[in-house]
Amino acid sequence: MLGRLNHVAIAVPDIAVASAMYRETLGATVTTPQMLPEHGVTVVFIELGNTKVELLEPLGEASPIAAFLAKNPAGGLHHVCYEVDDIIAARDRLKTSGARILGDGEPKIGAHGKPVLFLHPKDFQGTLVELEQT
Amino acid sequence: MLGRLNHVAIAVPDIAVASAMYRETLGATVTTPQMLPEHGVTVVFIELGNTKVELLEPLGEASPIAAFLAKNPAGGLHHVCYEVDDIIAARDRLKTSGARILGDGEPKIGAHGKPVLFLHPKDFQGTLVELEQT
């Protein structure tokens, strides 16, 4: 069921500082920031050849990463996103095995314009898992 | 300087339970556990096509992931590992720019038999970064 690793997401308090660190100190290719108000984040991508890292900065008052940054003010690894061919089939398999889907259990259109679901970290060893249909 | 994402590492309290979750619930390919007493971990790899996830369980009394699991008993995202062509050149560039290398600053042979360094999470937005020479 699991396909490629689509991305690893890192929540950061200041995306300009973080982008400069990755670009200048680590010599990485970092895209220009995109504001995604409907997702409550500003995002850049670090292009790594085989996959990418997303840096996420909170945007607006109801940002989904605000609570994480309140607990981890310096930032930190936030979630991993795996690709699946069929997100409804994936969801149904997960539900059958007792794994919990966050929210109402219906896929939403994610930051990349594709259907996504998030799985409960308590079911996956403390790791927030996103599934994205590709 | 940064090459591919070599792996994402997740610390887990029970690698058998975690492996079963990834294999059975998420339908992933999971290798059989390897004990690496010299690294203080038992490890399995989740093969994802473009990269891999490492699940790490503490092994022995001086495991480098023991403190992380004491703080995060359910487990959680532990580090990301990026590939570099020349780890000495990478280290020297990082030191020049003020980033801190963990330990004595000399590369060690990592769990994959290749030279690795770990960078201070405080310099990278709360994220523990491993560099591996490939």
UniProtKB/TrEMBL annotation, chains A, B:
Please report the stretch or stretches of sequence annotated as the VOC domain: 4-134
Source domain of life: Bacteria
Q: Which reaction does it catalyse?
A: (R)-methylmalonyl-CoA = (S)-methylmalonyl-CoA
Coiled-coil features, chain-numbered ranges? none
Q: Report keywords, A-Z.
A: Cobalt, Isomerase, Metal-binding
Q: EC?
A: 5.1.99.1
Q: Name one GO molecular function term.
A: metal ion binding
Family note: Belongs to the methylmalonyl-CoA epimerase family.
| Name of the protein this chain belongs to | methylmalonyl-CoA epimerase
| Originating organism | Aquibium carbonis
